[in-house]
Amino acid sequence: MAGFLIAVGPAPLNPQNIAWINGFDPTEHYLGWVFYRYGPWTFPLGLSPDFGLDIGASIVYADTIPLLSFLFKPFTAILPNTFQYFGWWLLLCFILQATFANQLCKLFITDHLTQFIASALLVFTPIVLYRIGVHSSLVAQFIVVAALFLSFRKTQRFRSLYWITLLCVSVLIHFYLFAMALALWLVNLLDKAISQKISSSNACKELLLGISCSLFCAWQAGYFLMGGSALAAGAYGIGRMNLLAPFNASGWSYVLKPISGALAAYESFDYLGAGILLLIIVSIPLLYTQAKSVWSLINRHRLLLVLLILLTLFAITNQIEWGQHRIEVAMPAWLFMMASIMRASTRLFWPVYYVIILSVIYVIVKGLPKRVATTVLAIGLVVQIVDTSAGWLPIRQKIARDASGVDVFTQYLQAFSEPFWDAAGKHYKKVLVVPAQQPPGKIPYDWEKYASYAAKYRMGTNSAYLARVDQGKLDAFHADFEQKVAKGQFDPAALYILGPEKLLPVAMHLDPAVDLLARINGMYVLAPGWKSCTTCPQVPPEYEIHPTIPKTSKDKALDFSAKGEGKHFLVGVAAWQVVGWGWAYPEAFGVWSEGDKVKLTIPLPIEPITGLELEMRALVSPKHPQQTVEVWVNSQFQKKVILSQGQGNQIFVEIPQASTNNSAPSAPQTPKQDYVTIELRLPNKAKPKDLGIGDDTRELAIGLVGGVWR
Asked: Is residue 663 part of a domain?
């Protein structure tokens, strides 16, 4: 409790204070809990259909800590409207970390004061404090400490009960913690069976029961809602471990400076702390006098040592780094995909991390007189707490500062200031963002804003930031929306927030006498049936969107200049400052791209065509000899083109022939898509000024001039 109050402070213990919860992950955790709390009961229990609507979601992928979500959901009616359990969870993690650390130290330390100091060293570990205010579930590293305690204790009494309980609790907290506990349990079970500490039959029973209980808990938490490639989101090595990570303070020391290049990403942090490093230096000469004892300990836990080596190798990944130096080892594609399930591989080093600290304490306690050992450990603890305050003190101060202010959820709701939003929140049952989960594979644009609005009115939403997203369900959602667009029939229970590329196709098929298409508070809104609703307040006429939709024909060229009709097909003009991509304002020649991609939405001619030939300029120079253009059509990658001349470049974009569906003749036919969305991704964008071409500081790549249907 003292450790919690020192490093975190009391502010999070107020369950009605959510002002200290901010940032991508904490916002996800809290909103995930809110949607689950007010959502329907499901079976399995962990499904949360309202948070990740139509794309598949469960509380485990919102990191709400399923164990606590299950505990508090039944009391929703009596809990205050604003309620968070993450503060008390952090306190519980500190207490359990100290409890299991103490049990672990008792295995080889008899003196109570020394036990206390050694336990405190295992509490003030930077890898725990580093997660505060970011990943509440991963502060629960008491799971790892408890698994090590069960691995080292001599008696096997109640072993099955303890291990299986630990596995079930860990799978209901976080998958990575479960993976570590599972690995330590399997190795311990094998070790005890080989040494005949437990019989083969009892080992088999424990194995079957442990796996069965873990799978049942995982099923109830909603793990199996995702499958296949959805679990391998990201790439193995994103959060890899640098070989110098245990010594890289990365701002968590007043004395030790960061090691350049040793922190590849947030997940790559594995600093031991100055106090532990000091104790390592003290313990090195003692290894000679304690060699026999240490070797005996290693010999008794050979299998555990092998596991720790394997976990370290997995944490390092095939991208071996020490400081700024790097060697990459090739991996088979299938193995890489499997390993990508644990993209934050550094976390797998945590059992090794704690064994290192434990080993240092063991050598000092065994190698020095009791009073000397206690004094040395106490000095190490003071250095550890004081020096690492360079890292945890700013976190504590930020929590205290944020807790006294206005919560971010209220701030997000300020974006919905028009009266329309309150009426719409009471009229519709869900908020659907189209396209959903943009940009692909990254944190969705403004998801917190739309999710906060949906949460206020108890609406479901697909605007969710989740650890994993089922791409198959996401594709199905978009395909279903395209069918609705083609028919001009939208879900009457849904309020749509549209991306700019969807305005033209929706306007092409909209019934303006019934459905509302408007720009309200800077958001593009499609409100089905709004105009025919007698109780719904109508928006000012100037808010409505009536885009110009020129017809295209095969014999008519497209002109993207300021005077041409093609400018109406440009998506995101002057949007670069907001979203980081889009078109500049059209000029006399055409229009320049800005940022790393651009989009076009163009109605198709009624005549048969095979594709669209685009003419464009390219920002090239002797210093920058080429531009790469990746062509995507209707969200599908088509090809990559290299442009090497300043003007007169031609790119032919094949247009797939949309056809009716292949269902049975009696089934309803899907209308033909009568527009195409073209996306051009531009990885080689550059600033003309940097290339010595004038003073233009925009990030340019191509200048679109015109187009011809073929």
From this structure: no
CA 388 to chain centre: 27
Buried b (16+ CB within 10 A) or exposed e, 258-283: ebeebbbeebbbbbbbbbbbbbbebb
| Residue 251 exposure: Cα atoms within 13 Å on the Cβ side | 9
**What is the CA 16 to chain-centroid distance, rounded?**
26
Q: How confident is the model at residue 658 (pLDDT cuts 50, 70, 90)?
A: low
User: pLDDT band at 237, cuts 50/70/90?
Assistant: confident
633 touches 656 (CB < 8 A): yes
Cβ–Cβ under 8 Å, residues 13 and 1: no
DSSP classification of residue 322: E
Domain count across the chain: 3
Cβ neighbors of 702 (< 8 A, separation 6 or more) are: 592, 593, 598, 616, 617, 618, 619, 627, 629, 643, 649, 680, 682
Domain end position, chosen among 201, 225, 249: 225
Q: Which residue, 675, 658, 518, is CA-closest to 599?
A: 675
Same domain, 492 and 438: yes
Burial bucket for residue 138 (CB in 10 Å: 0-12, 13-18, 19+): buried
Are 424 and 492 within one domain? yes
Q: What average pLDDT is seen over the chain?
A: 93
Distance from C-alpha of 459 to C-alpha of 428, rounded to nearest angstrom: 8
pLDDT reported for residue 232: 57
d(CA 18, CA 82): 8
The answer to whether position 354 is within a domain reads: no
Give the separation between CA 422 and CA 432, rounded to whole angstroms: 16
What's the pLDDT score for residue 434?
A: 95
Q: Are residues 563 and 497 in the same domain?
A: no
**Are the CB atoms for 178 and 167 separated by under 8 Å?**
yes
pLDDT band at 226 (very low <50, low <70, confident <90, very high): confident
From 336, 322, 314, 328, select the one nearest 232 (Cα to Cα): 336
| Alpha carbon distance 509, 93 (integer Å) | 55
In 553-626, which ranges are E strands? Answer: 558-559, 570-571, 581-583, 591-595, 597-603, 611-618
Residue 257, number of CB atoms within 10 A of its CB: 11
C-alpha dihedral sign at 530, 535, 536, 541: positive
State the CB neighbour count (10 A cutoff) for residue 289: 13
Is the CB of residue 464 less than 8 Å from the CB of residue 62?
yes
pTM, rounded to two decimals: 0.89
Same domain? For 531 and 594 the reply is no
Q: Return the bridge partners of 709, or none.
A: 612
For 198, the domain range is: 153-225
With a pLDDT cut of 70, the percent of the chain lying above it is 97
Q: How far is CA 463 from CA 31, 53, 66, 424, in A?
A: 11, 8, 20, 17
Q: Are residues 633 and 536 in the same domain?
A: no
